[in-house]
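Technical appendix A lists one of the benchmark inputs used to test multi-chain prediction within the project. The record comprises two sequence entries:
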Amino acid sequence: MKLSFSTKVFAMVLSAGLVAGCSSTGENMEDEAYGSDVQAIGGDDGSTVYGGDDGDGVSSGVLSDEERQAAREQAEQQALRDITTFYFDFDTSEIKQEARDVLVAHARYLADNPRQQVRLEGHADDRGTKEYNLALGERRANAIQRFLIVNGASRGQMETVSYGEEKPAVRGTSDSARAQNRRVELIFQ
Amino acid sequence: MTQKTSCHKTTVKMLLTGWLAAMMLSAGNASAELLIRITEGANSAIPVSVVPFAESGAMPPGDKVSSIVQGDLTMSGEFRTLEPSKMLSLPSKGSDVYFRDWRMLGQRYVLVGELTRSGDRVQARYELFDVNQEKRILGETAAAGVGSVRTLAHHISDRIYEAITGEPGVFSTKLAYVTVSGEGDQMRYRLQVSDVDGKRAKIRLESREPILSPAWSPDGKKLAYVSFETGKPAIYVHELSSGQRDKVADFSGLNSAPAWSEDGKSLLMTLSRDGNAEIYQMDLASRKTTKLTNHWAIDTEPAWGYANKGIYFTSDRSGGPQIYFMERPGAEPRRITFGSRYNARPRPDNKGEYVYYVHQRDRAFHIARTNLKTGDESIITRTESDESPSVSPNGRLLIYATGQNGSSVLTVVSADGGAAYSLPAADGDVREPAWGPITR
């Protein structure tokens, strides 16, 4: 898991922003496309390319600013929600900082769609004992469930199950395989 | 050491082989036997000669009784057997045993015997001699159906083991374990029961979903285990002779880690129906459960101590998983292990002397044991990703699962770690061994 989680999220937001920008105005792609923490790349005036949040300098299009904003946010949320697997350190059930925005997006979606059901599957890597890992997988799934509830989802929308170390995402005993196996998967139904 | 000079008759009971798995089964492939491989012997092994038995009448094809006995004794790690080709004579009666010859070969004990076919039964008459004392220490007969010569052979091995060591042998006991093969949709979990040498394996349950934690009832007639066949873990009790299964625990959350009480009337188990993994005791007749632990931490992997005195379990209440002991159900648990940050899945022996468990040392997971009187801990395995220790019912051997070249195999070691043999599955992984009780 050396390709960091935040890099992936960022890449997705980036591409989603690109799509939203195209569909709304068909121009100002640069403004839309770059996240705020991206530095300018050799613009002829040497200026910083700003993030797309404020809509500064956008020419008028079919959609109003508010609509564009909403569409973009929706696309961003959608992009965040493309991520449905959350990883953990060995023998912990602590949700990683970089997973929080994604989980908030899932929680909002669940709150907005009360009929949507989701199954939370908790897993552990192969180290340690099977029964302890079964309990650890459950604790991870419960941690995600609590986070989603705190952020607006309701308990009735979720069921949790732990597979412990029984269903690895990746076979093998390398550090990278193990990191990918210590996880909770959200399965929307 | 017992000394017997009279022949007494012993009947070997036929094992019930009727079974019916509740799930789909491929009967044709029902005997996926494990291959035995002896990896090292103990230096202290006692030299024993098993002389090939004389035969009168037609014997069933397959392994000879005396070679099965020889394999059993070698497998125990406590004996070193002499190859028949190195023997100076091949007696089958006590009157033909010349102690001087066997002493010259450095042998401590000699087993001789003969097999007689009568109808559909095979009778064995066998005698064990102590070479130093020039004395017969065992003389017996035993019989079994022609289809059960392995049962007969394991019985003889048990008698010899007991005559020499004073402890009951475990060669007639059974192993339960889970094999896993295939990938994706073809993945199959199979709960199997075999002899302790891996032979006569029979599939008892086959599923596309995980099966784990098989546990033998004290009478050896039932297995409790966890199966995910409904998509979530539930505990089943499975009667081996009939194949009848009862789903005994299917609460919301975890239903796992079943462990029998000595009287076979109740199961310890881990449930998380109140939101957190706790240990419960279920009375099997009434299905009434009693909660034994109450802590925000994970409490799991319970096991009754020797003579049903107290319960060992894993808890991470101190931060990481450690072994705890609860003197009586509900009493304040006492921590047993301190030597490393990860100690889990306790399995006490049958004498109240040791508790065995999975122990992390640096990056490796070994099986370790703690002496319950002194508190001293020792690591007894040299392999590095070890799981699921199960102690033989005489306390002399330990079976566990270990990773080897990317797959999982079963390994048996003497309880002090001296000798070892492994039982790799012919295909795929084999894991979760549970050593059955002595049932005579």
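The two ends of chain B are 20 Å apart (CA to CA). The interface with chain A takes residues 210, 212-213, 228, 231-233, 253-254, 256-257, 270, 272, 275, 277, 298, 300-301, 314, 316, 320-321, 342, 344-345, 358, 360, 365, 385, 387-388, 403, 406, 432 of chain B (CB under 8 Å). Comparable benchmark entries are summarised in Table A2.
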